[in-house]
Structures are given as C-alpha cells and as structure tokens.
Amino acid sequence: MTLALGCIADDYTGASDLANTLTKAGLRTVQTIGVPADDLALPEVDAVVVSLKSRSIPAEEAVARSREAAAWLNARGAGHLLFKVCSTFDSTDAGNIGPVTDALRVDAGEAVALVTPAFPETARTVYLGHLFVGAVPLHESPLKDHPLNPMRDSNLVRVLARQSRAEVGLIDLATVAQGAEAVSAQLDALAREGKGAAIADAVLDRDLAVLGAAALTRKVSTGASGLGLGLARALVAAGRVAPAAAESDLGKPIGGPAACLAGSCSQATLGQIARAEAAMPVRRLDPARLLAGEDEAGAALAWAMERIGDGPVLIASSAGPDEVAAVQAQYGRDAAGHAIEAAMARIAEGLVARGVRRLVVAGGETSGAVVDRLGLPAFRVGPEIAAGVPVLRTTDRDMWLALKSGNFGGPDFFADALRLMP
Ligand SMILES: Nc1ncnc2c1ncn2[C@@H]1O[C@H](COP(=O)(O)OP(=O)(O)OP(=O)(O)O)[C@@H](O)[C@H]1O
Ligand SMILES: O=C(O)[C@@H](O)C(=O)CO
User: Fold this and answer.
1) Cα distance between residue 127 and residue 138, in whole Å
2) What are the structural domains of the chain?
3) Residue 268, by phi and psi: left (phi above 0), alpha (psi -120 to 50) or beta?
4) pLDDT digits 0-9 by tens, 142-191
5) Ligand 1 atom having least distance to the Cα of 14
6) Which of 25, 59, 73, 122 is 20 to 30 Å from the Cα of 206, by its Cα?
C-alpha cells in the first residue's frame, strides 16, 4: 500500500471526523485504532487515519506515540503527514499540539510546519491568528469551560508558542488570499526568521484549498478536518489521487439492540441529551456516587437491560460547568475524568456482551475509553450523520458505531445517528 496521505489524530472522534472529510473529498480512507498490528488486513486506500488517545496525556507520551504512528505511515509511503488536532485547539500550556508538531517536523527534516484548526463547515475560523467558534472568539465560547482543557486564550500564535520549543509565526488572510505560492513563500520567510510553526488564517473553504496546496509542498502539517479537506483537494488537483465515490455498501444490516453513551459535557451534547429524553429512555449517572465508589456502572447496565428490548437507551454522565467544577474540586480533574471514562467503558462492554451492535458515543476521551475496552482495530467510513460525524463499520466484526465530537451534531443527533445504523 502506498499512501498519499498519512494522518495521526489525537483522539478517536477527531479521527472519524477527519476520515469523514477525506472520504467526502474522494480519498479512500480507513480509520485505525492505534498503530495497526502488522498482520491487520486493511483495504487498499489513499489515506489512513491512525487514531491515538493522546490529547490529554503527558507530552512526552504523546510525542512517543505520534512518532510510532508516523513511522508506520512513512513505512507505507505516506507522501505527507497530517497531525489532526481539535478544531477548537483543545490543549493545555503543557502540550500536546506544540510538542508533537515540533517532533514530527524535526523528524521529517522540515524547518517550519503550517498549523490551522480552521474548519468553516463547523464554524471554526481563524483570522489574524485568533480562533472563532461561530460568532465568538474561542475564549468566550463554551470551550472556556471544557472539563479537561479550558480554552481561555483565542490568540493561537500565543497559545502554540507557550507549548512549543520553537517560535511561532502567522500567515495572515491577506497572504492566503494571494494563493498557495504566497503562503509557501511566507513559510520560507518565517523559517528564515527561526519560526518552527506558523498559524495560518482561514475563513472560507477556498482558503483551505490554498493552505492544503501550500502544506503539500512540505512533509508535515498540523490542523483539523478543514486542513484535511484542503490537502485532499490538493492531492486530487495534483493528480496524486483519483477521486473515488464514498462506499455506498458497507455490508448487510445488523439490527438488534442499540445504545447511546455520552461523557461529553459540551453545550451541544447537553442539548442533545435533553432532546433525546423525548425519543428514548435516558439514565443520568451520578458522578459523585460513582467517584465515591458506588457501582453506578453496574446499576446503569441493569437499568439498560430492562429497557433495551423495547428500543434504544441513552446513558449519560454529562453535566453543566458548575456540577463538573464541583466534582473536580472534590476528586481532581484527571481522576474524575478517568473514573467516569472507565465507568462508560465498562457499561459499553456490558452492553456489547449482551448483544448491542449499534453504539453511539459522545465525547472524544469517552469514545477512546469505550473503543479501547471493546478492542476494535479499525473502521470503514459510512454515511455522514452530521458535519464531522460519520457512521463507522468495524472491519473485524459486524458492528455500527458513531463517535461524536462533543461539540458536533444537530439537536436530534442521537436519533439521527441510529437512523443511519440499520
Ligand atoms: N459529570 C462530570 N463531571 C466531571 N467530569 C466529567 C463528567 N462527565 C464526564 N466527565 C469527563 O469529562 C471529559 C469529557 O471529555 P470528552 O473528550 O469525552 O468530551 P468532549 O471533550 O466534549 O469531546 P471532544 O473531545 O470530542 O470535543 C471526560 O474525561 C469525562 O470522563
Ligand atoms: O476538530 C474537531 O472539532 C473534532 O474533530 C475533534 O477533534 C473533537 O474532539
């Protein structure tokens, strides 16, 4: 297999978002969970998205895992490596976007890497280095209250510089408007000034096409699905990939019981859970009881088993910012997060052991914990449920999944997803 594009995603929902974007742009794409084992049979594809769970782990571990993924992708001839990060740049001052970008860039022998989280389709735009989520700057958006990485600075040149060894520059919209050659020349100029990364502005899809073409002249770039779209378009335009229609037949219907799990505390997910109450039974986990050692997971599983024969169910730990802050103050941010993720993974395992083959999970870390516990190796990409969220079909067994990024999806996301999982 010779890959046109190798991708390393820092969480599993982000990986499926990117796999969805690449598929829609005509690249035959597969999403793997972790670095694939040598004997994993993969279809012939243009792009592989290796999903890591590296967004919120110590930087040196994130670097080591990303390097391992890069080595696997490079061994399959990847012409370009994209490090897929969140479109809201989720990270802390300790990393991991800066350290991983530095490491991949240096390993590839590049002086500077283009970085942009812009994804206009989901209303993430970058102007003069400032990230906007819809109509508000990042630090005024709900991301300011993220349970693991509250984003309180919208100036990404500053944010990335705090995480990076090298200095960070800017490629502004005026330069992007002049086209790929101007962007490439600006990258060279920034490299001469000693900059190791450049935040690139992008407001419209056409800006992404320019950035993709410029990024493709180097071996490594960092961005969200928007940059993936730009790279895919550039690969097709350069004749390096013959565009393929998305697979319409991902296999026979599976049917049977279905369940949804939500660990994301994003505003979008909280709204979707509230809406789901009208469509299916919803059980809310009590994080305080769970963290005090009560068997909340066992109780939720028993609750689900009483209802699942009649239709889908939803189990959610999600809570608003005040409740999250109270739990974190008592148990610590990471300990609380990990304990809740572990409970979700246990519930997923129990549901699958009892026959669930259609599973929707909301939240990147939550999805990571669930998919790891289920031991799923790779996914083929099915139809799009909402911008950034495809239906996935496991390559090694008959199972449908949807891994939803916290902020993505329409108000009726859970019902919308299940409708596309026959
Ligand atoms: N009630 C709660 N109190 C404190 N932490 C919670 C609670 N419910 C969930 N969590 C934790 O919050 C974190 C949510 O992160 P997750 O990545 O799953 O969602 P997200 O960040 O909204 O999604 P994405 O990364 O896709 O944008 C997880 O670690 C989860 O265990
Ligand atoms: O880019 C995004 O917003 C998503 O794919 C994601 O990474 C959320 O975890």
Assistant:
1) 12
2) 5-238 (3.40.50.10840), 258-420 (3.40.980.20)
3) alpha
4) 889 887 888 999 999 999 999 999 999 999 999 999 999 999 999 999 99
5) 26
6) 73
Distance in Å, CA 226 to ligand 2 centroid: 11
- Among 90, 88, 102, 32, smallest CA distance to 60 is for 102
Q: Which atom of ligand 1 is nearest to the CA of 366?
A: 18
Question: Which protein residues touch ligand 1 with a CB less than 6 Å away?
Answer: 11, 13, 146-148, 263-266, 287, 317-319, 323-324, 327-328, 336-337, 340-341, 363-366, 405-407
Terminal alpha carbon distance of the chain: 31
Instruction: Give the binding-site residues of ligand 2, using a 6 Å CB cut-off.
Output: 11, 13-14, 17, 86-88, 224-225, 364, 388, 405
3-state secondary structure 65-96: HHHHHHHHHHHCCCCCEEEECCCCCCCECCEC
Q: Kindly report the average pLDDT of the chain as a whole number.
A: 94
Q: What are phi and psi of 316, to 5 degrees?
A: -135, 140
- Least distant ligand from the CA of 287: 1
Residue 269 pLDDT greater than 80, yes or no = yes
Q: What is the pLDDT of residue 355?
A: 94
Residue 150 CA, ligand 1 centroid: distance in Å: 12
243: pLDDT strictly greater than 90: no
Closest-CA residue, ligand 1 atom 14, reads 264
Task: Name the token pair of 300.
Answer: 């939720």
Two tokens at 226?
């928007």
Rounded to 5, what percent of the chain is helix, strand, coil? 45, 20, 35
Angle in degrees, CA 108, 113, 114, rounded to 5: 140
pLDDT band at 231 (very low <50, low <70, confident <90, very high): very high
The angle, 0 to 180 degrees and rounded to 10, between the axes of the packed helices 296-307 and 333-353 is 30
pLDDT given at position 5: 97
